[in-house]
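Input chain follows. Return structure tokens only.
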Amino acid sequence: MVGGQALDVHSMQVRRSQRGRIPNDIYTPDSKQDTTRNVSYKLNGKTALQKKALGTSKSQKPINVQDKSGTFIIENLSSAAYKLLKRETYDYYNKSDTNTIQEINSATTIKGLKTKVNVEQALSVKRKSGGRQLYRINFFNTNNKIDVNGYKYKLFVDEDFPKIREVLRDTALIDQLNQHIYKACISVENNCSSTCSEQVLLQIETGSQGDDTSP
């Protein structure tokens, strides 16, 4: 639903195949086509970690979905729901027979780590047969927000998002993953230095494996 109306995730039916299962990988992007650009600011790893902990307490009933001035906005996502929705979006287009994606990353540095962190990621969606960009899906990793724009963004709203959002039916999985993220964040706050918090932030994002370094 759009126009500021709420999406009642709890009214959806939970898929048995995913119940109680925490995915090892947050998502698996197609690395064949990607571009990275640097942003001008540095990320405060401890603050970003605190935001992730706060995001685990957000209710998934409802999330906010708005179609606002040509931009489709998805927000009020918990930290876990954001991760799952992002992963499902990548998986959906990687398996598409008609569309292809190019990933654009916006990266920055944080104190104490050599590895750069992706603070924003975007998917440029085009037809495999060629032509201009249909729409662009933007992931804002520091505040768990997603928006979609472009001249054919309504295709995402009407055709793609209803399928992608199915992953949010599994509220048990979302709750379990939120608890996992929260415990990791609190453990860092109580026992680690600022540099340590930044390292654990990366571990939360990658699921302790893979190359994803987004908050």
